[in-house]
Amino acid sequence: MVDFQWLIGGEAGYGIMTVGAIMGKVFTRLGLSVFDYTEYPSLIRGGHNAYYVRASDEEIFCQKQPVDILVALNRETIDRHKHELTPQALVVYDPNVTKVESTEFTTQTLILIPFLELTKQVGADRLMINTVAVGASIALLYNDFSVLEGILKDIFGRKGEKVIALNVDTSRAGFDYVVKNFAGKSQIAIQEKPQENLFIGGAESLALGAIRAGVKFAAIYPMTPINAVLTTLSAYALKYNIVVKEPEDEIAGVNMAIGASFAGVRSIAATSGGGFALMVEGLGLAAQTETPLVVIEGMRPGPATGMPTWTDQGDVRFVLHAAHGDFPRIVVAPGDCLEAFTYVMEAFNLAEKYQMLVIVLTDKYLNEGHTTLKISNLKSQISNYKIDRGKMLTDEEALKETDYKRYLFTEDGISPRSIPGQQNGIALNGSDEHDEKGLYNETSKMRTTMMDKRFKKLDAVAKILPPPVIYGDKDASLTIVGFGSTKLPVLEAIKWLKKEGISVNFLQVVYLNPFPADVVLQILTGAKKTLVIEGNKTGQFESVVREKTGFVFSNHFRKYDGRPFYPEEIVEKVRSLL
């Protein structure tokens, strides 16, 4: 069995993120299951960047703690990460740049490679020591340079032959140096098993799901951890006829998205907690005018600027209740890249069918982590998806209207929706309370009736949403409950525990609102023991479950240091409870 973790570290500006992604793509192309995780400060240059890539010939769900190969581009990387090394780990570094005492590593193998000298030999800039490191790393794990060469040509193809040749030559210098001087030093040997897999990140999955759903307008102010949503949509904007706007701030962004949706196109806004705070008044406008809207909220540690480049799950209560006054909204929290792709597609259908705000709740760990997905699974989701625009009037239907009421009272609370320019579909759509035609109205009866109308739609949504998902044995000794990206380390921990003969299952709640209270309560009351896991200080998700079901958990596990859960931590917690 092959299961190892590679780590490269260095200061920002040396392409740590680029080469980490290259390694992930190489391992994916070789047929391995891959997951990556990054740590970096909110700096353009300097600071410490770390990129973990785990790969296995069995299915994996997340990173792990031990590191099998450490590539150190500076001394700081060794100081920060040597405690993570396995006894048999390889430590790769440039002895002319990084000084290491002979007594520092007693069981690990030191791989001394003159990164800087090799870049000079091929005429490359010193910043390309990262590319030498990639070539050297592949040589330690696999005996064929052609796979890496193919990846480099794919990545740098648009930059011209000179750039391609320079990257290939630089990485080959590292590859050849290891083959000549350190052959057989690694105990890890990859056997190629070509599979049709895709190496993709959570934010990219969200963007591609939006494209498949037919998004035509995006207004996104850059903010970690949703930046890749913006860049991915921008990359495909011309091909799929999408207007991608970088507004001056999140206030402008959400109102632009509302305006585009009002005009009849599927639109999206995306932000993190601080930007979402600025959007709140706009969300109220969307609710009052019953304008469909999809907003991605990628959580990171707050309050204020907090820790911009780290992960957290502390916005649960915020997105559920962000409002002045009451209005309905759907909140969905995908747990992995495939779910990110799938649920953002469904978010657009729900938004238009129920003329409602849909918030897709993610976090830095999911958005910026990459993993391998089976292309067949993506193709299945793509082919099975059908766009549903709900009660959106066609020009012919609008023409038949003789007394059009945009906010017509109906049995399900959903009214016929016209778009500007349709004959006989003229309506007022203001932010004041209104009657069926949109005319300003503050009477007691109308206010009550209109509020009930809007919330009636949420009752209808609750009836059609899929139930929560249970992973693992039904008769498990312990039931773990969580949402969002905690799914990844929990499933990995369950896999490890099963090998020890410990039976644990996982209840994943995907839709946080409307909350599936009856199903969740039935599962929890039937569980032998329970453990709720989430990435925040105050147990926000736990309190939501208790509020909706009355169930009191016997145990909880919370983490709020900006780092994701590790499967080792969950395994240790489970052992302490059983």
What does this structure look like?
The protein has helices at residues 16-29, 75-81, 115-121, 129-141, 146-156, 161-181, 202-212, 227-235, 250-262, 273-288, 316-321, 337-354, 364-368, 375-384, 395-399, 444-464, 487-499, 517-525, 540-549, 567-577, and strands spanning 3-12, 33-39, 46-56, 67-72, 85-93, 109-112, 197-201, 217-219, 243-245, 267-272, 293-299, 329-332, 357-363, 370-374, 469-471, 478-482, 504-508, 511-513, 530-534, 556-558. The protein is an alpha/beta fold and 578 residues long. The protein has four domains: 3-195, Pyruvate-ferredoxin oxidoreductase, PFOR, domain III (Pyruvate-ferredoxin Oxidoreductase, domain 3, 3-Layer(aba) Sandwich), CATH 3.40.920.10; 202-384, Rossmann fold (3-Layer(aba) Sandwich), CATH 3.40.50; 395-464, no CATH class; 469-577, Rossmann fold. The strands form three sheets. Strands 6-5-4-1-3-2-14-7 form an eight-stranded mixed sheet, with helices on both faces. A seven-stranded mixed sheet has the order 9-8-10-11-13-12-18, sandwiched between helices. Helix 1 runs parallel beside helix 4 (129-141) and helix 5 (146-156) runs antiparallel to helix 6 (161-181). The longest helix has 21 residues, at 161-181. The protein is globular and about 85 Å long.
